[in-house]
Amino acid sequence: MTNNIQLPWQQEAVIRHSLRILRSFEYWTGRSLLDVNGSVQEIAQALFAAPFALVSHGTESDPIFNYGNQRALELWELSWQDFTKMPSRKTAEEVVQEERNRLLAETTTKGFSNYSGIRISSTGKRFDIKDGILWNLLDENDDYCGQAAVFSNYELVL
After folding, report:
1. 79 contact partners, CB below 8 Å, separation of at least 6
2. Which 8-state DSSP code applies to residue 10?
3. pTM exceeds 0.85 for this model
4. Alpha-carbon gap, residue 13 to 133, rounded angstroms
5. What angle do CA 19, 20, 26 make, to 5 degrees?
6. ∠ at Cα 62 (48, 152), nearest 5°?
7. H/E segment holding residue 131
8. Interval 39-88: pLDDT, tens
9. Residues contacting residue 155 through CB under 8 Å, at least 6 positions apart
10. Which residue pairs, CB below 8 angstroms and at least 24 apart, start in 78-81?
11. What is the pLDDT of residues 43-57, one digit of tens each?
12. Going from the N-terminus, what domains does the chain have, and what CATH number goes with each?
């Protein structure tokens, strides 16, 4: 029997979404998120294995994560399957939800924002993000289709 389970970055929908993340980041910031060449699958694999944490959510009324690279999955201590079922609001403690909501709204209006803040893993570990970037995702027709965030600078909070 063959194993037909694909890693996230091997799935066609994730490959398309990875390219959308990269293109949208460059559109809003004028910079490349990742310096990589190759096939679309190689690009998606490089983004999934990148040394920074990268997440995105959709446009639901209570947005659900639709992407988390390997670093993000490790940080939030979740599998791809569990992460991509979780509302993104669950990464912030209740006391910082108002600031998180303000940041999401600001980004929707401006296109991208810099951010910092405390987030929480699935097991309750807290970490303080520094110098993160949040940006709007645009689909292939340049229509808004969610938001993504990236960061590499964080500290565990005891």
Report:
1. 73
2. G
3. yes
4. 24
5. 90
6. 30
7. strand 126-138
8. 999 999 999 999 999 999 999 999 999 999 999 999 999 999 999 999 99
9. 127, 128, 130
10. 78/122, 80/8
11. 999 999 999 999 999
12. 52-157 (3.30.450.20)
* Nearest in space to 58 (alpha carbons), one of 68, 49, 50, 48: 68
How many residues are present in the chain? 158
The tokens of 34 are what?
């990742």
The alpha helices in 2-141, defined as continuous H runs, are 12-29, 40-48, 70-76, 80-83, 97-110
Residues paired with 7 in a beta bridge: none
Token reading at 107: 């980004």
Q: State which amino acid sits at residue 149.
A: A
Q: Which residue has the tokens 């209740």?
A: 94
Q: 44 and 19 in contact (C-beta within 8 Å)?
A: yes
Long-range Cβ contacts of 64-69 (<8 Å, 24+ apart): 64/88, 66/17, 66/146, 67/14, 67/17, 67/18, 67/21, 67/148
